[in-house]
Write a structure and sequence with these properties.
Oligomer: heterodimer
Helix content of chain B: 25-40%
Distance between the termini of chain A: 10 Å
Radius of gyration of chain B: 18 Å
Strand order of the largest sheet of chain B: 5-4-3-2-6
Number of helices of chain B: 7
Helix content of chain A: 25-40%
Shape of chain B: globular
Order of helices and strands of chain A: EHEHEE
Largest interface: A-B, 27 and 24 residues
């Protein structure tokens, strides 16, 4: 299946921000994103991990990976919940 | 560096599927008018918006009073039980760039389908007019209409 535009990756740095900050940033970026895009959320909020898991399950998007860096967590989401 | 690679999420119900067990609506009776109790309203509404949930807020009594044009900017009321925490809390929130209840609620409205309904009983009792209220308030409704909106919603009393 040929894609009209290349896959875009966007980093959302929400370090220092509290719930619902990280998820609202993710959601706002998601609204602008297209099917297949990658959103990488950087968060220090401990709610970010479980909330992104819940969010991706509920909205039909893919949780690709979670990486615990020294001072923050990197959560990668692939946009799979939109129409291609 | 720890890496947990998540398996591809399994097939799931589309958000609006009638077969989905999850309620897709949030209904809040907002009775309180202190800034500490107003905080969760914006936060919950934002979280609901990210999940594609419809949110209906029924602002009644002190909750409706909190939406008067001047009050949205000047309200400093805090729960009496924790009044000594009011100063430190406000300072902490400012220092950590936590948005005010009003900013949080405004942001929620931009993200999703959030409706703020003024309770007609309070509205009438206090002789209010729509011009007295902040434009973030959408309309006035009665308890019966609210309960209809809430019937298939996650419903809270704040």
């Amino acid at each position: 299946m040929e894609q009209a535009q290349p896959v875009q990756k966007k980093v959302l740095d929400t370090r220092g921000s509290y719930c619902p900050g990280p998820l609202t940033e993710l959601f706002k970026a998601y609204r602008e994103a297209k099917q297949g895009d990658i959103l990488e959320l950087w968060a220090t909020d401990p709610a970010a991990k479980p909330d992104v898991k819940a969010w991706t399950a509920r909205t039909g998007n893919e949780l690709v990976q979670i990486v615990d860096e020294k001072d923050y967590t990197r959560i990668t989401v692939k946009v799979t919940g939109k129409r291609a | 560096m720890q890496a947990q690679v998540m398996k591809k999420t399994p097939e799931k119900m589309p958000v609006d599927s009638p077969l989905s067990a999850s309620k897709n609506k949030l209904a809040i009776v907002l009775f309180s008018g202190t800034v500490d109790k107003l905080m969760p309203v914006g936060i919950l509404a934002s979280a609901a918006a990210t999940l594609g949930m419809q949110v209906d807020i029924f602002a009644t009594f002190w909750g409706l009073n909190a939406f008067k044009k001047d009050a949205v900017k000047t309200n400093m009321k805090f729960s009496k039980d924790f009044e000594e925490m009011a100063g430190p809390m406000m300072q902490l929130m400012q220092a950590k760039h936590v948005p005010s209840w009003y900013e949080s609620l405004k942001q929620a409205k931009e993200m999703g389908n959030i409706k703020i309904h003024a309770c007609t009983m309070t509205y009438g009792l206090m002789g209010m007019k729509m011009e007295d209220l902040d434009p973030i308030v959408d309309d006035t409704i009665g308890a019966v209409s609210f309960l209809e909106l809430a019937k298939d919603a996650v419903t809270l009393f704040i």
